[in-house]
Protein: Homoserine kinase
Amino acid sequence: MKSIKVFAPATVANVACGFDVIGLALDNPGDEIEMSLSDTPGIKILGINGADLPLEPSKNVCGVALQALMQKYEDKNVGFEMTITKNIQPGSGIGSSAASAAGAVVAANILLGEPFAKEKLVRFAMEGERLASGSAHADNVAPAILGGFTLVRSYTPVDIVALPTPPNLWVTVIHPQIEVKTSDAREILKQKVLMKDAIKQWGNVAALVAGLYRNDYALIGRSLEDVIVEPVRSILIPAFHDLKIKCKEAGALGGGISGSGPSVFMLSTSEETARIVANVMHEVYAPLGVDFKVHVSPINQSGVKVISQ
Amino acid sequence: MKSIKVFAPATVANVACGFDVIGLALDNPGDEIEMSLSDTPGIKILGINGADLPLEPSKNVCGVALQALMQKYEDKNVGFEMTITKNIQPGSGIGSSAASAAGAVVAANILLGEPFAKEKLVRFAMEGERLASGSAHADNVAPAILGGFTLVRSYTPVDIVALPTPPNLWVTVIHPQIEVKTSDAREILKQKVLMKDAIKQWGNVAALVAGLYRNDYALIGRSLEDVIVEPVRSILIPAFHDLKIKCKEAGALGGGISGSGPSVFMLSTSEETARIVANVMHEVYAPLGVDFKVHVSPINQSGVKVISQ
Structure:
């Protein structure tokens, strides 16, 4: 029986100024998915390591994403069996559901002989996101599948733009072990924003994209400013402002809330600085009495990767 | 006496999705400014050809921009005399005041031996814009001085990013001879916008910048969509929607209102298409009984240019 094992990366959505449109992929952490083709039609989730998630395909993001793929695949007689290993904690804000959904559709696509382009796979994985959060957003699944930085220009129709990644860009992420539900984090956002704030935000998003193309780290740093969402959501994250100020003092270019939180990310221009920033995160959080994890990672350039085949 | 003659280009601000932040420069039309250094301190406007504008320096955008420059220049004993030839009609929405202000500061800077960097000149010229429209915006003066496409990332502090210009990009502009005051065009805008519209807008601005870096004309075309300002301001422009649809059918990538109107611009990927689009504009406007002018121009790559010295 043909089988494959893939690594599916964590991702940082929004990237400060790019609410709902920009995302980036990490080299670690990531989920692993082992998948086999089966002669029995249907999707079977044999087990999930590391998290308490439903095995029933229609209630599991991998299952739902695969179902979306199978709906567009001609041969209805193939089936899939898979085991999921969750290394990205659900609810962390670094694309846990997106990684699993992305891993599942990329693995299945390879097993089937790659009938679908990556852009199509993004659409299938978005159905997993619809299950996980109620909306089929693409700002985590796009970087999880394509790697690097991605832009979701539009949802109607889905229009994904792969952006370049400047060399030596590192990410430090702190995940405070508190629960912030994506749906709650969405609900506290206002439906209307001030025009003058919106203008600032799109000035910064445009500059972030220019900075990525120019390898202009200073410009990237200046553009990592979120005047729309961060002022509202940061109240849900302990010591957010202190953390941000101290990480930037320690050399980080800038950062913000990862996705809908509670994780916070910082970008740096070297592994050394990214590790210093990690230490600063430890120093800020250690006295708070909140459990936390810190990840240090380069930007993942490839998206979902085959581990063995 | 040292003297110089410069050409100062018309500009298209906003460029559809980039309200208040993106601008581009045209090769034509443009104003001309002849300027001489003088031993008598102060600014003297000897004459203005082609428009009825104040000669008094404190009431003229060139005078005010030059005053801003002189405030930062050490030697207070120099003066300037100038004659302005207006080929860009005031109130047209293609940066008439910006061109004159930009031309004046660039000419003066050259006469003084270039003590100021271009970014500084943008700030001086912005003072002309403050006089002309009540706000010191930079989205016309930046492309007039730097050429090509520019981005105003921020006003506090002023942070201008020069963007690349894909080859063979042409602009067609129709200027309906009706009056739309910048202040009126500003007043009809809402102070708040829907979050979902703002997200669409910054997705498009980000994609426009990516398209310019990638020379991706299709992406540029898809991103030339303005869901915030155009729906409100387009009511001030006769036959706007008909014009836009027919220009795109004729091969234009897309376009929108130039600045605060009433001019409308369209981008095309060749001179041939740009001229076909010009014909379409003629066809749409001829029956309306509104006077109009049409300009066809490549993107200006250099900003203000020296004609003679």
